[in-house]
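Narrative of accomplishments. A recurring question from our advisory board has been how the design workflow behaves on a single, concrete structure rather than in aggregate. To address it, we present the structure tokens for one chain from the evaluation set, followed by the sequence designed for it. No filtering or post-editing was applied between the two.
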């Protein structure tokens, strides 16, 4: 099964792939002397494990960072390891990335995507040596791909390229943009390995989001929406089409989203995630099955969070799904006969990025927890017993960690709230220290037991090394605690969740950890919204940092690329008798008395939370004489993707916090 992405980022530099079985040398790099945003973003990142059909070989990716001189980018390459531990080697090399590893059905080749010729194409290389060979020549680059069961073909998605007329208009500066016209659709193409040709399997205006081959290779099932607009995901349906092209047959067509279809191993059914025939724009992914030749969809048992991601099937044909469970990411076995889900993994960290072998008896995945970096592991499914396969961090020297623990507290109305508390490096019981309240996005985001040494916009161990404790709450509205909890802040933004956050701060103060006179706060996206809201509700924080935040829901809903998501949370559009709701929950309408020093950080190319949201709030703060600054990152959407910018965020924030806490 393949899921396409809304945004694809590719570099356009030459690439040479060589199969060189050289020893793993990532650990030979110099030790990390201290936790800094730069050292953290410079650490490798392990991901995308895949397992060969017979379960004997595992491929995974390692991302490296380039920040020398004028460079500010990431490069990803593929590594291979034997399941018996006898080999662990780098597989691809070069200046260009190699991603999305997949084994051919016979296990002879490893295939992947790269931009060797300037666009995303599929390449293959013999597992036992040789040079990479380009397989596809997609005019506009490959989005996602999958081998046919017999290995004779590769199906891939490609977004419609520019027409000759469109290219001419661009050259002649006549390229006027007609909004919601001339859509570019993502379509499925099938490439014949024998004939070295590719053709689209369907015509018409359907935007493919994911697809899967039938076990006999005769049919492709795919999810599609009317256009590529993000809002149209709420109108996603499922159809089938002959793999050699032909008429599209509707399989599931109803209200809400039906997506990520997967054929069952026997080919008799299609498993998929769904809103269940009703629009659930806040967020639900229940499991359903439907007969492969058509019929009425049947619901499977609800999972804990009702937010399932399909991974594959075990040897008995049960579905394997990943889901958030409180602060952990776990794997479930879900019987297709309607039986209750069975938890396979412990709840002691982040089990993620699962891949199952053809027999369904062995699984590979990544694992991490707050003090253990991500590595690739493998286990038999009959009895879960993980064995580590990668060793990227095995010999790497890292600084002392600030310990992280899961804590819980009772909010104002009796709701039990959970979160993660990271102590300063070297913390001694009884010390009262500065506390950073860190608010996640979404609002249906989650703070989970991820490794705290990873390099992101908020470099947790960097702040901990500087003497700060960090509280990362999961207030009402968060993922991981069930549908009802996730829906608890609908039409209540900034009220119940604000109380959850502040009661968490009070709990950490009562623990004797946080100094009540040294409180600061930061948040990104919806967390940035909460930052703008917090300063209108309290002056307890000495300083705050608002990242990619929204401050005016009235102007936000008409300019964001996800208006439907906002309207689902706010009870409909503001012009339909709902203006009071929008104003009541917008910080910009509650500026009287705001005095907290506020830092505003935003990307100039943000479509999710347009730049105007930051500008409106900054202007209001400036007019009121509030100590404030605004930092803009060029070429940046809803979050920095360039390593130097990623590292810069935490450096800017700690300067702001230290200054207002008198710690400079």
């Amino acid at each position: 099964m393949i899921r396409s992405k809304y945004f694809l980022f590719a570099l356009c530099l030459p690439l040479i792939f060589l199969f060189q079985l050289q020893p793993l040398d990532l650990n030979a790099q110099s030790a990390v002397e201290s936790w800094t945003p730069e050292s953290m973003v410079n650490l490798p990142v392990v991901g995308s494990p895949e397992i060969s059909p017979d379960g004997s070989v595992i491929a995974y990716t390692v991302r490296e960072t380039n920040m020398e001189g004028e460079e500010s980018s990431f490069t990803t390459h593929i590594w291979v390891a034997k399941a018996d531990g006898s080999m662990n080697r780098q597989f691809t090399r070069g200046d260009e990335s190699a991603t999305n590893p997949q084994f051919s059905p016979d296990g002879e080749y490893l295939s992947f995507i790269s931009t060797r010729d300037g666009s995303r194409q599929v390449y293959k290389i013999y597992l036992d040596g040789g040079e990479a060979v380009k397989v596809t020549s997609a005019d506009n680059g490959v989005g996602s791909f999958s081998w046919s069961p017999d290995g004779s073909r590769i199906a891939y998605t490609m977004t419609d390229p520019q027409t000759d007329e469109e290219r001419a208009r661009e050259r002649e500066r006549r390229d006027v943009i007609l909004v919601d016209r001339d859509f570019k659709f993502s379509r499925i193409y099938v490439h014949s390995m024998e004939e070295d040709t590719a053709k689209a399997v369907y015509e018409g205006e359907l935007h493919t989001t994911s697809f899967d081959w039938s076990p006999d290779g005769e049919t492709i099932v795919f999810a599609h929406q009317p256009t590529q607009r993000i809002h149209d995901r709420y109108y996603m349906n499922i159809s089938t089409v002959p793999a050699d092209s032909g008429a599209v047959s509707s399989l599931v067509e109803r209200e809400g989203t039906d997506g990520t279809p997967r054929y069952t191993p026997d080919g008799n059914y299609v498993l998929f995630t769904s809103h269940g025939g009703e629009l659930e724009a806040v967020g639900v992914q229940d499991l359903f099955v439907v007969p492969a030749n058509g019929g009425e969809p049947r619901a499977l048992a609800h999972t804990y969070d009702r937010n399932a991601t399909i991974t594959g099937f075990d040897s008995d044909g049960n579905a394997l799904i990943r889901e958030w469970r409180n602060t952990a990411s776990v794997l479930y076995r879900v019987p297709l006969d309607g039986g209750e889900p069975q938890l396979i993994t412990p709840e002691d960290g982040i089990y993620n990025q699962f891949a199952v072998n053809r027999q369904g008896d062995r699984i590979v995945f990544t694992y991490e927890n707050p003090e253990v970096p991500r590595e690739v592991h493998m286990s038999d499914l009959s009895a879960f017993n993980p064995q580590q396969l990668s060793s990227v961090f095995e010999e790497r020297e890292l600084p002392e960690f600030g310990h992280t623990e899961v804590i819980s507290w009772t909010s104002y109305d009796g709701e039990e709230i959970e979160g993660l508390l990271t102590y300063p490096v070297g913390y001694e019981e009884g010390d009262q220290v500065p506390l950073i309240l860190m608010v996640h996005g979404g609002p249906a985001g989650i703070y989970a037991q991820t490794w705290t040494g990873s390099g992101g916009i908020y470099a947790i161990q960097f702040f901990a090394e500087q003497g700060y404790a960090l509280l990362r709450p999961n207030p009402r509205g968060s993922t991981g605690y069930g549908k009802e909890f996730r829906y608890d802040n609908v039409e209540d933004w900034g009220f119940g969740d604000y109380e959850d956050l502040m009661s968490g701060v009070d709990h950490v103060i009562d623990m004797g950890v946080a100094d009540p006179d040294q409180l600061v706060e930061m948040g990104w996206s919806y967390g940035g919204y909460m930052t703008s809201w917090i300063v209108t509700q309290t002056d307890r924080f000495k300083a705050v940092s608002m990242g990619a935040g929204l401050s005016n829901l009235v102007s936000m809903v008409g300019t964001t690329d996800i208006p439907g998501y906002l309207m689902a949370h706010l009870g409909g559009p503001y012009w339909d008798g709902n203006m009071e709701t929008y104003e009541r929950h917008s910080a910009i309408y509650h500026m009287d008395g705001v005095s907290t020093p506020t830092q505003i950080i935003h990307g100039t190319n943000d479509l999710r939370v347009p730049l105007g949201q930051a500008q409106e709030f900054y202007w209001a703060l400036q007019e009121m004489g509030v100590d404030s600054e605004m930092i803009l990152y060029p070429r940046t959407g809803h979050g920095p993707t360039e390593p130097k910018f990623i590292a810069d965020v935490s450096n800017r924030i700690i300067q702001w916090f230290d200054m207002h806490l008198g710690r400079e």
